[in-house]
Amino acid sequence: MLPTLVMIRPVSKERWARINASAKDTGLAVQRVAAVDRVEIPAELRHGLDAKKFHHSNGREDLAGE
Fold first, then answer.
1. 4: part of which helix (H) or strand (E)?
2. Which of 30, 38, 53, 63 fits as disulfide partner to 23, beta carbons 3.0 to 4.6 Å?
3. Rounded distance between C-alpha atoms, residue 59 and residue 13, angstroms
4. DSSP for 28-66, written as a single string
5. What pLDDT, in 10s, does the model give residues 14-51?
6. Does 6 score more than 70 pLDDT?
7. Residues 6 or more apart in contact with residue 66 via CB below 8 angstroms
């Protein structure tokens, strides 16, 4: 069986513990993949988001993780 990938920030230790325990209870294989909060990445290193177009289309700034 292929594992289900769970993207979660490294600081979310309690959340991961709950998810992992729940998965084990159901027999689901899960693998943790470290997620990164977008605001922690310098703007010049972000790829794939046109902030001006996003704002024009949505009427707001993008939220972390979008």
1. strand 4-8
2. 30
3. 34
4. --EEEEE---GGGS-GGG--S--HHHHHHHHSSPPPTT-
5. 999 999 999 999 999 999 998 887 777 777 777 777 88
6. yes
7. 38, 49, 54
| Tokens standing for residue 3 | 């594992």
* Per-residue model confidence (pLDDT) at position 66: 64
pLDDT at position 25: 94
Q: In 10 A of CB 18, how many CB atoms?
A: 10
Q: Extract the tokens encoding 6.
A: 């769970």
- Tokens describing residue 12: 């979310």
Nearest CA-CA partner of 38 in 61, 16, 59, 15: 61
